[in-house]
Every structure is written in C-alpha cells, then in structure tokens.
Amino acid sequence: MDSSIFSLHPSSPLILSLAASCPNSTCSLGLSSPSGSFSFGPRHLDFSSVSRRLMAAPSPAASDNKATTANGGVGNGLFKPKIVNGDYGYVLEDVPHLTDYLPNLPTHSNPLQDNPAYSVVKQYFVDVDDTVPQRIVVHKDSPRGVHFRRAGPRQKVYFDSDEVQACIVTCGGLCPGLNTVIREIVSTLYSMYGVRKVLGIDGGYRGFYARNTIDLTLKVVNDIHKRGGTILGTSRGGHDTKKIVDSIEDRGINQVYIIGGDGTQKGAALIYEEVRRRGLKVVVAGIPKTIDNDIPVIDKSFGFDTAVEEAQRAINAAHVEAESGENGIGLVKLMGRYSGFIAMYATLASRDVDCCLIPESPFFLKGEGGLLEFVEKRLKESGHMVIVVAEGAGQELISETKSMTDASGNKLLQDVGLWLSQNIKVCLLPTPFFILFNSKTMFADPTYMIRAIPSNASDNVYCTLLAQSCVHGAMAGYTGYTSGLVNGRQTYIPFYRIIETQNKVVITDRMWARLLSSTNQPSFMCPKLVAEKRKEMQMATEAQPSGQLMDDGNTGADKKAANKEVRA
Ligand SMILES: Nc1ncnc2c1ncn2[C@@H]1O[C@H](COP(=O)(O)OP(=O)(O)O)[C@@H](O)[C@H]1O
Ligand SMILES: O=P(O)(O)OC[C@H]1O[C@](O)(COP(=O)(O)O)[C@@H](O)[C@@H]1O
Ligand SMILES: [Mg+2]
Description:
This protein has 21 helices and 18 strands. It is an alpha/beta fold and about 575 residues long. The chain starts with 5 loop residues before the first strand and ends with a helix. Magnesium ion (MG) binds next to helix 9.
C-alpha cells in the first residue's frame, strides 16, 4: 500500500465509529428499488417519487451521522459534519452516506467484478477504510492531521444499474475540460456500471426547472472532449433550491452530478441538504471546476494546466511585439478574479515576463518603488518589457464607485489591463526619457480565447479520473461530496471544506518568492504594509504549538525564515 494512504487498522478504536457511520455490509432487509415508471414531464407525483419518499422514513439513530463535532456544517448547517478522531491526532473529515438517513438500503455486487477489463486488476476495489492525508509533510512528533476518504470503486454498490437515473449539470464560467468530464461521467456510468439513463441539464442550475433535458448517450458524448465549452451550456444565477429539488423528484433522478466552481458547490451543498431533508434516495456529487484554481484543499483544478499553456502563447506574442519595437511594452491580462495562479504560473513558465501583478499582492503606480518607476527602469535596461496582470489585480486603485455584481453575486471587475495601458501612456510619456524615445504599449486580453479551448492531454486524463472517481462514489452510496485530487490521490471531500474559503496565492510562500526572483520586480509593498504583514505572520507563528505544521505545510520556523524574505 502506498505510504500516502492511511488505512485504518481493524484493532483501532476508530473502526467502531467508522463501521457505524459507513456501512459496507450487504443488508438483507430493506425495500427493493422502485419499479414504477419515471416521469420526465412537468411536475406531478408518480409512483417512483412516492416510493422514494416511503423509503425515506429516517430513523432517529440513522439521522445522527455519528459526527463527533458539530462545527462548520454544510450550507445552512442542518446536518453535522462527519468527523472521526483517531490515534495520534488522526482526523477523518468524512462525507455523508445515503444510509446515514436511509438505513435499510439494499446493496448489490459491483458489476465491475464481472468486467473483463477490470476483473484482472489486483486489488481493484478500494478498501472502504482507506483515507488520504491532507498534508504529507510531517515531522516525527506532528499529529497525523486531517484525512479525506479515498475515492474509487467499492465492492458493494447501493444502486442497481437499471434503477439509476443520473443527470449532469455545468454551471458558472467556462473552463477547458468541461466536455471531457461530461463525457467520462456518461462513459463510466454506461460502460462500467451498465446504467442506461443519463440526462443533461441544459444551461446551468436554472435548466432544472426552466429548460428541457438532453439525453446523454455514449454516441452523443463520443468526441465532445475535442471541443471547448460545454455541450450542456452553462449560466450564472438561477439557483432556486426548492425548484431544483422538485425537478429532481419529478424526473425521478437519483444521481446528480454537478460540475462547477465555488458558487456552484455552494448551490450543490444546498441541494444535498434539501434532498436529505426530504429523505430522498438521491446522491448529490460535485466536481470542482475553476480555471482560476481558487478552490481550496485540492491539488489543482482541471483546465488549469491548459489555461497556463495557452496564456504562455499570449505572453510570447506580447514579447515578440515588445521586443520588435523601440521601448515596446507588452501587456497581457489573464484570468484570476481573486487568485493570481494563472498569472503566476504562466509568468514562471514563460521567463519572458518582467512584471506580474496579481490580486493578492497590492501595488501602486506613482512614486518611489511604484510600478511606473519600475517600468522606466526596465525599459532603460532592456529596451522592452512584458507585464502580466491578473484581472482582479489593482481593483482598489481603479475606482471607488460601488462595485456591481453578476447574476451569481460575483463582483464585476474594472478592466485593469486597459487602465494600466492608459496610465503607462499618460504618466510615462511626459518624462524626459520618453520624450527622447518612442514607446508603444501593446495590450492583449486573451481571457475568453483561453477559456474556450479544449483541454490538453494531461487535463483530459485528469478529467477522466475525476469523473470516474465521482461516479464510483455515487454508486457506492456516498453523497454530499466533491471529488478532488489531494496529494495526487482521488478523494471525496465534504462540501463544507470546498466552500469555506478560497485558494489564494500566498505571497509569503516560496512560490511567490520564486516569481519575484525570476522577474526581479519589486514587491511594490510600502514599508508600512511590509511591517504589518510581518506582524501578522509573527502572531500566527506564535499562536502555533511548537513543531505544529501550519496551513501551508510550513512550521513556525519556516515562517520565521519566510518573514525575512518579504522585501520592502
Ligand atoms: N451562495 C450560493 N448559494 C447557492 N447557489 C449559488 C451560490 N453562489 C453561486 N451559486 C450558483 O452557482 C452557479 C454558478 O456560480 P458562479 O459563481 O457563477 O460560478 P462558479 O461556480 O464557477 O463559481 C450559479 O447558478 C449561481 O446561482
Ligand atoms: O463568464 P464571465 O461572467 O465573463 O466571467 C469571467 C470570470 O469567470 C472566470 O473565468 C471564473 O469563472 P468562475 O467564477 O465561474 O469560476 C474568471 O476568470 C473571470 O473573472
Ligand atoms: Mg467562482
């Protein structure tokens, strides 16, 4: 077994609470799956939805999911997180299971057992007790820390193939790989589990109640991974929990696959809660989508690699333009509303960038140590320069007018690229240096071109594994989870962990230091801000017990060293 997977030992006291909260034994009791006809039309109660309600009668024991703590619940916090504590500071942040509120569900043998391609794989099924640590850098005395349930196929499943009526929805902004994920969910359901009913929800959350559905067959999805966008369409806004769950019931859907970013996963958490409140045998599973890479816990999001690769092409073009003219400035705006990961990685990969500006690192234009001073200096040294700016950078400098939001409630941003190119022109031209020499600023905004391309080879494989893991979890009866890669392993992560924070570039970490050293740009921090940052970090460091690893895997000692790296 891989050392990064921690399997619970049967003799551990932990096994008792896990066995209670995550059944994996075959139940002889229980009602058989509904055999009534499913309704695809407008809302009316049919036999299948009545029988699902009858099956739903939750027992008091089952509705308590054995959580040992009750903090930070999902969505509106109706249901307790499943947290299991083990020896040496081991914590399992488990995901819900249908049997938490439907205790007598029958199980079936996993059809993969008879699949010639998989039956020969040694240990193909994942041990139900396998878990994956969130942090892999540990010290001799550090606690084992937080773990997530390992994803993968289970020996027993909680759905009969004929019983499954799955649906897939894509929400939020576009991202390379969406079609691959759709294709692979359909293909896993059909080819591995023999499912024959998969619906596509048209146009995001509102499609549940305002649009027709699309039948997704192997033929329909066959070559969609070669196309950008999403064949299902997507949208912002339109999340109405009651209407969505009504539609799920009416259509007889019992597996809901929701592909989207932080906003979408918040919506998914609410759907899960409502489904559970109504006691439905319906799995709600998420697949994290964010081109900005701003979803926490997971290693990285699908489409991110593709986006960085494409962003590099734009940087390259800007570099060619800048280098060909006299004092040419190539300015490239990249995606990143709140997080500058695409800008940071594209800059690091390209090596042609002189300055990278991201939302996490404030900058200022004029005066000593400001951006304009640096532009002038770099032009004098090299005769050209390339600036990469993430769309969320410098927003506080552009306008103080009350910010507007989109249909999903996301802040609408001012165009920092246009603003910068105008300011560079207006502010630098009157200086003696620019009166003597010409300068031309070329501004490129390739954001929508990047979002629209199909995913590259590595993202395609990543999307395939994500989709397969997600389906295995649903068939095994897990629910209320997002599938995600943690330390290179597929896991099931409870919704509340995905939506509680946003992943951001930590400018006191080594990666940002690498970037600063590759571009040799100033940190643009005024001395007061540096002092404040240092103080914040010092206080965080002192609050940590000795040897305890902090959020980013560093110890207090690492942090102290990092504090010294913050440059004025
Ligand atoms: N807090 C929330 N609660 C419920 N639904 C939400 C929430 N935030 C966003 N959504 C819904 O999720 C969908 C996508 O959200 P959006 O922010 O546009 O994209 P992303 O999921 O990529 O962050 C939209 O339909 C939106 O209405
Ligand atoms: O699709 P829109 O509304 O133009 O939004 C553009 C935004 O979408 C993003 O691609 C992120 O989308 P999500 O919030 O859906 O993940 C950002 O990079 C960009 O700010
Ligand atoms: Mg978002």
